[in-house]
Amino acid sequence: MIKILKSILAGIALGSIAMTAQVASADDTIKLGFIGSFASDTGRSTLRGAEMAVEELNAAGGVLGGKKIEIVKADTRQDVAEGIKAYEYLAESEEVDFIVSGSIDDVTLGWLPRMVEYKIPTLDTWTSYIGIIDKLVEDYDKHKMYFMNIASDEALASLYVDFGKDILAKQMGWKKVIILQEDTAFGGAINGLVSQLLAPEAGIDVVDTIVYDVATVDFAPLFSKAEASGADFIYVIASVNSQVVASQYVKLQVPMAMTGIAVSAMGQEYWEDTGGAGGGISTLSPVPSVGFELDPISQEFVDKYKAKYGNDRPKYPHFNGFNAYFGVKQAFAAAEKAGGFKPLDPWVGAMLEQDLKLDKDGTPWMRYGFWKPGEKEERTGRTYPHNARFDITKPYDDGAPSMVVLQWGEDGVARVVYPEKYATGKFEVPSWVKK
Amino acid sequence: MEKIFTTRSILLWILFAVVMCAIPFLAGKGFLRICIQAFFLAIYAMSWDVLSGRTGYVSFGHPFLVGIGTYATAILSYRFDMPLIASIPLGILATMIGGTILFLPALRIKETYFALVTLAFMELIYQLTQVVRPDLTGGTRGISGIESITTGAINNYYLSFGLMFIIAFSLWALMRTRLGNALSAIGMNEEAVKGCGINTTKLKLFAFLVSALVAGIGGAFSVHYFGSLAPRNLFDINFLFTIIVAALIGGSSTIIGPMIGALFLTFLLEYLRPWVPGTERFFIYGIVALLLYMYRPSGIYAIFWEVVDKFKGKNASSIKDSTSIQGVK
Fold first, then answer.
1. CB of B46 within 8 A of CB of B167?
2. Smallest Cα–Cα separation from A154: which of A371, A433, A374?
């Protein structure tokens, strides 16, 4: 047994040395950790946006006195436990200076307590759960290292309610909706917001809600239930495997309109993934989405992206690829101003000052900035500390729109249909649905 | 019958504890975090081994037991603000009740049929967490933000190692009693044990309860370490296989084996991360585990003794004897 113990100890010692060797990088590098799903287009968009920003920063001579940035990646597999392990790995094995995340809401909620423990500046490019911004509202000091540069789901829902009012109720004349919601933190949050706001603000009643597991493969019974509900349309909330619900809707030619959120429809590969069975699907999308006209600077990013990654999917960056690209640059600009990522307070202060305004044809088009603590958003009357600075009031000139609604035509082309300022097409119901 | 505790064996356990307690002074925090994961896996693997490795009743429903402890303490502390000092013991108690339920099929069926029924238990609880009071269980998305017992790699290292050590030592002592021998005898020939006039039903119930106790401890403490739970992780075939593979490739029916297996698997997976950061590392991990089990089904523990005996010049036939002589089996 002594020999067993000796061998275990020798293994531990060797392992420890190996880990230390991994961590012991040169003093002239800064470590950026990426946490997210390697297998999803959305996760890969964040990673690529961060990679491109890092390449440009390194090519420009490095950061913080000429130091090169090194990216360390940790896969979450869209799994809560793996997400926690991944954050621990980045923080304690790799000792990264800054983390950029392409994680879904549930995974972020899993690693959030670790972020609080390690106090590592973290930029989230995908999670939009308002509950996390609420944590900053409730206990700012504890969570101040966290920034979310996508509009929170509450802001997404607010603008979506306008779409409901202007298009679904006024233009289409719909009065009743049934919600088809995946069982995730994101699904629950969006459902809550839409249910609370659609009826009083748009005059559309929620007649029922169907909650489904993200592993569901046969939606026919759920669509039958939706048809029997007497609703005018389905509001779908699908962030995981959403091409399944979307393509089945088309293939089954469900005789009622469906709109809402289908994350897969936000990507350029959607048409291929559904085998062309994706026409008529419309989805709320954070910006910039596919079909969204770009300002020159964002267009330059897309051109470089296409040149670098070619046909390797995702061929076109998702919204969070833009968020990662501009957000990582902002995080390092803040670090330059604050003298590094540590101590935390100067960096947080400098990050809050970051404000990139992008114009198109002389019109304010996109904005990458953050709401400051205590600063109230006019329409909702509440604060959104460290959330992307969104604008949910016409004419959308004070910030980026929190979202647009895009629709895939039956010709396979994605068009933005709302709000009017950004529209490149008109909202239509699929050809098999009676108008 | 040999003495349960010899001076040599006690000294070895003390040495093991001292050395492991010294690791936080020598290793980085990242290393400690991997150890913590391995210690919890070792607890689950020992729990499985005490039931399936000893009695031969192969359980495919172990996540069912782990899940009961996990959910019970998480719900009590997170939803009802119960202090952890009460929620954790209640979670463990709930797991032991679950262990009794899992035991019921063992009264009537064995072997493959028993394994399949226990698998059904896992699937059943997975479905139940989604439909029965999702306001408490969190439905398919589970619960996040569960209170921690302590924070930091070092504190959690000592906590998880302490748990694993106490469990390992207790099981080791238990398996050296006549009761432990009787449990092993059930695995070899249950009918023969019955023929000796021993009540095997009581013995099996005892094994199920001990297994559930250990699984409950592991589940209840680990959820307060991770801070969140998700049913798709917990009641998952991958989690079940990880537990079984840790016990088998370490060395089934031993106490040391499942610990070695858990450490080996966890470190293998985490050490692959820098070189193979994506899902591919799980493929490599699976291949390594498969090869090890195909070519050395007796496990890493036995491989070690084979090597030791080769150095000592003993022949292969003496290997089995040598492991018993060491008094650690």
1. yes
2. A371
Q: What is the dihedral of CA B21, B27, B29, B33, to 10 degrees?
A: -60
CB atoms under 10 Å from CB of A336, counted, come to: 14
Q: Give the start-to-end residue ranges of the domains of chain B.
A: 7-246
* Residue A199 pLDDT: 76
Which carries the bigger pLDDT value, residue A217 or residue B293? A217
Name, in order, each residue with C-beta under 8 angstroms of B202's C-beta and a sequence gap of 6 or more. none
Domains of chain A: 154-291+403-422 (3.40.50.2300)
Note whether B130 contacts A85, CB cutoff 8 Å: no
Residue A177 bridge partners (DSSP): A206, A233
CB B65 within 8 Å of CB B47: yes
Short-list A354, A389, A15, CA closest to B35: A15
Cα-based angle B53, B58, B63 (whole degrees, multiple of 5): 100
* Both tokens assigned to A273: 């993934």
Cα–Cα–Cα angle for A359, A363, A366, rounded to 5 degrees: 45
Q: Which residues are within 8 A (CB) of A178 and not within 5 positions of it... i.e. 6 or more apart?
A: A206, A207, A208, A209, A210, A226, A229, A231, A233, A234, A235
Question: Which is more confidently placed, A263 or B83?
Answer: B83
Cis, bond preceding B258 (omega within 30 deg of 0): no
Q: From the CA of A37, how many Å to the nearest CA of chain B? A: 8
**Run of H or E residues at A368:** strand A363-369
pLDDT confidence of residue A13: 52
C-alpha span between B7 and B64 (Å, rounded) = 39
Nearest CA in chain A to B24: A16
Q: Which residues of A touch B161 (CB under 8 A)?
A: none
CB–CB of B271 and A8 under 8 A?
no
Residue A112 CA neighbour count, 13 Å, CB half: 28
Q: Average pLDDT, stretch B135-142?
A: 82
Looking at beta carbons, which residues of chain B come within 8 Å of A114? 227
The stretches in chain A having pLDDT less than 50 are: 1-3, 5, 20-24
CA distance B118 to chain A (A): 23
Residue B223 has pLDDT above 90, yes or no: yes
Instruction: Read off the pLDDT of residues B87-111 as tens digits, 9 standing for 90 and up.
Output: 999 999 999 998 898 888 877 777 7
pLDDT at B328 over 80: no
